[in-house]
Amino acid sequence: MILVTGATGFVGRHLVARLRAEGHRVRCLLPPHRAQHLPWPDPPEIVVGSILDDEDLFRAATGAHVIIHLESAQWWGRPRDLERVELQGMRSLVTAARAARVGRIIIVSHLGASSSAGFPLLRIKGQVEETLRASGLAYTIIRSGIVFGEDDAFVNHIAMQLRANPLFILMPGRGEVLLHPLYIDDLVAALASALQRPHTVDAVLEIGGPEYISLEDLLRTVMRVSGASRIIISVPPYILRWLTAIYSRLLPRSLITAQWLDLLAANRTARIGNCFEYFGVRPQRIEDTLLTYMRRRRYTSALLRYSLRRRPRV
User: Fold this and answer.
1) Which residues pair with 171 in a beta bridge?
2) 132: alpha, beta or left, given left = phi > 0 and alpha = psi -120 to 50?
3) Strand, helix or coil at 101?
4) Distance (Å, rounded) from C-alpha 287 to C-alpha 209?
5) What is the model's pLDDT at position 97?
6) 3-state helix vs strand vs coil in the chain, percent to 5
7) C-alpha dist (Å) from residue 181 to 16, 184, 293
């Protein structure tokens, strides 16, 4: 039995479908408001409860031999939400996993995660990693580049920003930061492969796609594929953080969050061949993948739906 937390999130939806297609028994821990709207026509076993409730966690973990922990607040949460969902959630999960005698915990972290990082998202992700490594349980930590796909909250948000302003788009700094994007199907394949590969146990593995790309090149790629050409205006990152703070108070959700900017604060790359070396997965190029879905999409309605949607309840 494999327990998946955060199963209705971007990565979780794809992972659960992949695991079940491969014949694995899957159980999902979901809060009540998410358990009412499941993204699968034939849902797996569902345990209704909170990542912050010890009894719910123990009930979900009992009988599971692996936990894949994907619960996250990185795209919508404020720093206090990150600490509760990411850090406190991991501590509670470790306690429940010990009591239920779970064999291994697998998590997805970020390239650049460190408990000494100067940016809240990367610092909290680093603290989560340290909590897991010190737990005494077998673990696998996959540090991934920015994950993109048809319903992601990064590349799609760039496309929404292009629709929000018909003239220009604001870019933090000079756009020279290097990113290492990874397609969602490739990350899911790596997670599924980790279940069968002994060398991934008690390891921190850094992976990304088949290419590095600067932020400016990524913006121009999205403009080219989506057919929305705009003027790129370079803005000091601290000004964008001020604007983000204002937007987050005016709208239920902001396209750009402080965590979004944390991911663009420094180069975040892994060795190009790691994904194949560790997991036997040949990742896909970003522009080739965007062409399969972005050219057909109209992001104006998606922009309105996202900006006016309520924040998740913690």
Assistant:
1) 234
2) alpha
3) coil
4) 12
5) 93
6) 45, 15, 40
7) 22, 9, 16
Contact 106, 139 (CB under 8 A): yes
Task: List the structure tokens of 218.
Answer: 């990524």
Query: Within 13 A of 188's CA, how many CA atoms are on the CB side?
Result: 21
Q: Given the structure tokens 């070396």, which residue do they identify? A: 277
Q: CA 253, 171, 153: angle at the middle one, nearest 5?
A: 35
Q: Could you tell me the two tokens for 285?
A: 């190029």
Separation CA 235–CA 169 (nearest Å): 10
* Torsions phi, psi for 249 (to 5 deg): -90, -25
Reported confidence tier of residue 79, pLDDT bands at 50, 70, 90: confident
Facing residues of 105 across strands? 67, 139
Cα separation, 169 vs 305, whole angstroms:
20
User: How far is residue 6 from each of residues 9, 29, 149, 239, 312, measured CA to CA in Å?
Assistant: 6, 7, 17, 32, 12
How far are the Cα atoms of 57, 83, 248 from residue 69, in angstroms, in the given order?
12, 15, 27
Sheet strands (E) in 16-58:
26-30, 45-48
Structure tokens at 302: 């998606």
What is the enclosing helix (H) or strand (E) of 253?
none
Say how far apart CA 19 and CA 304 lie, in whole Å: 33
- Cα Rg of the chain, angstroms: 19
Q: Record the pTM.
A: 0.91
Beta-carbon contacts of residue 65 (< 8 Å; ≥ 6 apart):
1, 2, 102, 103, 104
CA end-to-end span of the chain: 26
Encoded tokens for 215: 């932020």
Six token digits for residue 36:
């009412």
> Residues 91-148: pLDDT tens digits?
999 999 999 999 999 999 999 999 888 888 899 999 999 999 999 999 999 999 999 9
**What stretch of H or E contains 191?**
helix 184-194
Q: Count the Cβ atoms, other than its own, within 10 Å of residue 181.
A: 28
The per-residue DSSP string of 55-94 comes to HHHHHHHTT-SEEEE----TTT--HHHHIIIIIIHHHHHH
